[in-house]
Amino acid sequence: MTTAAQIEKFLRQEKQEFRMRADADVTVEGFSSSDHYRAGTLTWIKNAEKWREELKDITLCVVQEGVELPLPNQIICENSKAVFFLLLEHFFPVPEEAEALIGHNTVIGKHVRLGNNVRIGHNCSITGEVEIGDDTVISDNVVIKNRVKIGKRCTVQALSMIGEDGFGAYEDENHHRVMIAHFGGVTIGDDVFISSHVSIQRGTIDDTYIGSGTKIAPCTLIAHNSRVGKDAVLICSHLYGSVSVGDQAWIAGSIVKNQCSVGDHALIGIGSAVLEDIAQDKIAAGVPARVLRDRSK
Fold it and tell me: pTM here?
């Protein structure tokens, strides 16, 4: 059981901005969504459209600043999503299984260097000149090979591949396609999240690069020689060879032609095909992608 007083104390320790409008003795046991609310739990409402009359008896609710709700017990926050999930992680954590740091049937090559508290799941293959930083977690059935450096506190989910050669070829005198050997690697910064079924190919000469804080959703391809800046978001997208993506850019469900660039803070809408450079701070969408407006507007 967790009380509102305990929650308030924790949020103050974490220096979160919030207003507590709740009886200090109110207790919650677990959490639930507002769509499937369970009595006696903590929940979260971000906008007024989520409100239903049957929710009037919510025990304790994290509420977005500016949303007026007829509830007796509320935690009102400017960033309600961040606060709600911070509370879940602290008060209702998922129990960790008592497992070894290295899972069953996982192969670790002799040149691999692992930092402190690195966790690697089952059936992985990690070979070559690979370095993995402190507190990084590698899930099951992941392949990391050749020359790869992964920073601290990263997550690589199941069935992802990092470091395989990219798709590059030249035509010989007999018009046969000959695959190009790759000599580069992959460099990944700190606090990068790589979801399942992600493929990050190594560079031909220089490294493919992923900046710190970047988040990559499932089924994303980052082809050889591409460079992704800090705190970018890539959602189910394909970046073909030598693509450049700026800091805090957002690309959703799109393809980016080889050697194109997407500038800092730019946003590419779902289902787009980027065939020309997109400048920083622009919102673009369509096939081919066209600039719609500045992101600041």
Answer: 0.87
